[in-house]
Model the fold of this input.
Amino acid sequence: MTLHRDTVARRIDVEAHRLLVAGPEGNEQLIGYDKLVIGTGALPARPPIEGLELDGVHLLHSMGDTFELVRTLEERSPGSALIVGAGYIGLEMAEALSARGLSVTQMEQLPEVLPTVDHELGSLVHAELERQGIEVLTGTAVESIRRSDIGGLRVEAVGATGSAVTRSIDMVLVVVGVHPDSELAAEAGATLGARGAIAVDRQMRTSLPDVLAAGDCVVTHHRLLGASYLPLGTTAHKQGRIAGENALGGTREFAGSLGTQVVKIFDQAAARTGLRDHEAVAAGFDPLTVESEADDHKAYYPGSHRIRMRITGDRATGRLLGLQLFGHRDAEIAKRIDVAATAIFHGMTVDALSDLDLSYTPPLGSPWDALQQAAQAWAGSL
Amino acid sequence: MTLHRDTVARRIDVEAHRLLVAGPEGNEQLIGYDKLVIGTGALPARPPIEGLELDGVHLLHSMGDTFELVRTLEERSPGSALIVGAGYIGLEMAEALSARGLSVTQMEQLPEVLPTVDHELGSLVHAELERQGIEVLTGTAVESIRRSDIGGLRVEAVGATGSAVTRSIDMVLVVVGVHPDSELAAEAGATLGARGAIAVDRQMRTSLPDVLAAGDCVVTHHRLLGASYLPLGTTAHKQGRIAGENALGGTREFAGSLGTQVVKIFDQAAARTGLRDHEAVAAGFDPLTVESEADDHKAYYPGSHRIRMRITGDRATGRLLGLQLFGHRDAEIAKRIDVAATAIFHGMTVDALSDLDLSYTPPLGSPWDALQQAAQAWAGSL
Done:
């Protein structure tokens, strides 16, 4: 059955195994199902800022939001943009708008940018943003956006010291995270979990009979933390594949997330997998986090870069719990975090990382890879 | 105790726990030991080529050989070089000499360059060499090197079709592999193994009491093949660390090699880990090898590269046995092979690679990493 692309799901009749949908003109229709997969995703968080509805203010989340933003950029050629939020999307937007020639100001309410990594690495991201000409204001909470007398927008915020911060700007992007769009499932009686996301088992089955769900609308199983809310593209792909297979009679299980993430910030990259120190404490571990540095490849071969690493392991068992990396975009940061993610997946100890037979050639590595050097620094600190 | 740097070990007196050494002037000395670690390394293979002793012909292996080569390059400014062998070192030398402005010819006796990967990938390395101006002659066996009448050297070889191939050249490098330098240990009665290397257990102990050995002179434990001869820098570092720890009373075990290797060839890189199809057959597996291609990162983001992948798994158990990669030097080939090496280390199935929580951001990856796409292609072929 083919439905119009603007068709929306209105209600699930769990008993009758039917879904009520409405087309673009409001015309309703009942569709029977044997198995139903919900993939309603997430909605952008709306922070308590006055003026979010103004023309020139964009809450970025869907494809439609992006098309609208591109239209604004093309039709109005704004010269300046203010980005509220300095998470993954906020950082990517800062780079993208800067590459288009806009003057960019980034405001983040928390004390440091990229709060999903430790502030020691966040501060390196911060420095890279400033090196690239971005104005970065951390500890700064936006309170209101108003249409300015001279055209454009006027953003009023409270800075780190409590003082007022104002900026006149052509365009505002608000990217401060998302929350699960679980309304359809909730109204049908589905059990919700962390952050109001739809609760699912490892086979992506909701509490409703014959209804599965996947992606940014569901609770994600984390291998070290259990039920979490972790809306990520990689996770959504895996869960969708499993929900699809199981809707057709399969019994595949979602193996779980480790919260592995990477972001490029201009010429640098930052990545993490597993748990940070405070997350490990909260999960009942006795963690030790050790910071170290190593070359991405032998320094005598041209083009080497230092990698800053923070490795977290459990003192009691020696188990590897997490890794955070910061380094040049050419320093294979993304795939190095993936080696650690694979190691954590298998419950390796930090010490055993030195046993891994990793590749080496002077232009691309070291006989002990940076990761193994970090592991040895950790073991030495223990 | 500090010995002169040119001191050589002459004989081990196992009973008396003493080592006879000779200084640079031949002055002998007996040194007592509690534990002895042998790290005599390997010696370059001398192929049956006439004229290897000629001035201008270099057998490349030790630091000393390299210094001598650099002296030749600096003092004589040769305009052309012929490299016998197209393994890792031969390829690296082709690039290095080409970067110095020499005209380079590479001769390889086997049908394709880089014979440690399948010829499908070797042929891509071959094409990159030619694209960079290297003359590549495969299936070509060098028979003799003579001093030419007009100065320089004359190399005579037999080409792939049996026809004579001659080249007039300023300099010849011979890099056709190594064999273990196990003479000292053998004379003391140590058991030898594969390729005449010193047999050691997982704790790097030889058959001689209180004598350990590590590196290119020993038999290496391969996690899938058992005892092998695999002289690699990464392995030597690991074994040396273990031998050192155990000489001081430790009981650490060498976890084993997977033959993980990577080489950069100008703008490209080739890597492998684990077993290739024929190696898997020889080891008693029922392998399936599937070739596929994927982008290193989302193609809509500038600068993406295709990665050519050959994945080998066991039909009966689904177990991942090996991976070979070829792609651009910026495509994180080295660390992608390391993810596979970590997966093989833990006995993962090919199918389970899709369960790994790997990192994603459009400039650096895909929601399913190239490796996972290769795994899915393999599962589809099965």
In short: The two ends of chain A are 61 Å apart (CA to CA). The mean pLDDT of chain A is 96. The domain at 261-381 of chain A is CATH 3.50.50.60 (FAD/NAD(P)-binding domain).
